[in-house]
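tool=predict chain=A
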Amino acid sequence: MSRKKLIAANWKMYKTPSEAKAFVDAFLPTVAGYTRDEIALFPSPVLLPTVIEAAKGSSVAVGAQNIYFAEEGAFTGETSILQLKAVGGTHTLIGHSERRQYFGETDEIVNKKLHTALKHGIVPVVCIGEVLAEREAGQTEQVLKTQVTGAFAGITPEAAAPIVIAYEPVWAIGTGKTATPEMAVDAHRIVRAEVAKLLGSDVASKIRILYGGSVKPDNATALCSQEEIDGALVGGASLKPDSFLAIVKY
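tool=predict ok
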């Protein structure tokens, strides 16, 4: 089953509007006509209108780093799915490890956000992954299974097609450490097997699973050329057009 890879840039809490526009203006000409993989940018909420406008007419998608599960309401500081759609966003990250670690997001919250994204036709990139202590304790498989099961509660096979999963070993994010391709492939196989158990082998064979843990130009080829790895969720190396381009064109 051939799955089109997705290379995604998570800019986290970096860039001003002018810096974001400069990135897009420099990056777009370098990927004009590029069709092998999908490309998506995930800027912080205040940058979304700027980046969406700058990327208009290109094949580069733009999404939010986070959404709330309620469509509107008295939730100070949150971004709703309707607001994201209104400015032209098409994707959203859900359950990034930093959201789980610093903002207390649980599998139940991730699940609610996933249902909201699917209801409104936004492509959800659901992030899962183990911390160092869990890996060292041999708990990686159990953690991944628990997170997938929690995230996918109540999701039907018919509704699951747009979902993307990003496996991010938390111990490899921003640390300079990277899971070897073999470690990443093993984790992706665990995740795909769990999706098959929950939603069937047909859904599992089509769902894209990205790797996201210190992806850089010098390891992108080794990771993304693996059959089990359907692209990358890139952090720090996505902040400069040239280094992100090197990963896109691994």
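The mean pLDDT is 96. The chain has one domain: 6-248.
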